[in-house]
């Protein structure tokens, strides 16, 4: 009767080791901040520290989510999003996905979680900025019905001093 339990344990171990356990978006916690800073440093030329994330998360109206494997709460998150809601207007402060999890729908899951949260809070609109050369992110935001409402010339610069513009995108929620 209990012969199958070792096989279940083996399958669970294999799924966790291989990284195939499903992901869920959960509220960002203080113990996530160093992991979040590490993911941010892999995605941006000017990374934020864990202390900077803590300061942002402590501001009124700020909230965040991390994507992590089901059943593995102590493992590093696969990605995160940090946002802020003030007077009915929300903005994505930053979002990033660990390189080994890119292309698996993690960014979409995080954005869906933000949109669900903003719906519950009855927000009117959501803004974000994205590098004009980040084709994957722009495609995601277009699928999520964001529209370009502005452009910030030479907003981003890489470690070689090359400048690119930021697209300002908006989604009407209400």
Can you give keywords for this protein?
174 residues; alpha+beta; Aminopeptidase; 33% helix; 33% strand; globular
Quick recap:
The chain is α+β, with helices and mostly antiparallel strands and 174 residues long. It has helices at 5-18, 33-43, 50-57, 106-120, 135-143; strands at residues 23-27, 62-69, 79-86, 89-97, 125-131, 147-157, 163-172. Strand 4 (89-97), helix 4 (106-120) and strand 5 (125-131) form a beta-alpha-beta unit.
Strand sequence of the main sheet, in spatial order?
1-2-3-4-5-7-6
Radius of gyration: 18 Å
CATH fold name: Aminopeptidase
Strand percent estimate: 25-35%
- The number of helical runs is 5
Uncertain regions spanning at least 5 consecutive residues = none
**Outline type:** globular
The name of the CATH superfamily reads Gcn5-related N-acetyltransferase (GNAT)
Q: What's the helical proportion of residues?
A: 25-40%
Protein name: Ribosomal-protein-alanine acetyltransferase
Keywords: Acyltransferase, Cytoplasm, Transferase
Family: Belongs to the acetyltransferase family. RimI subfamily.
GO molecular function: N-acetyltransferase activity
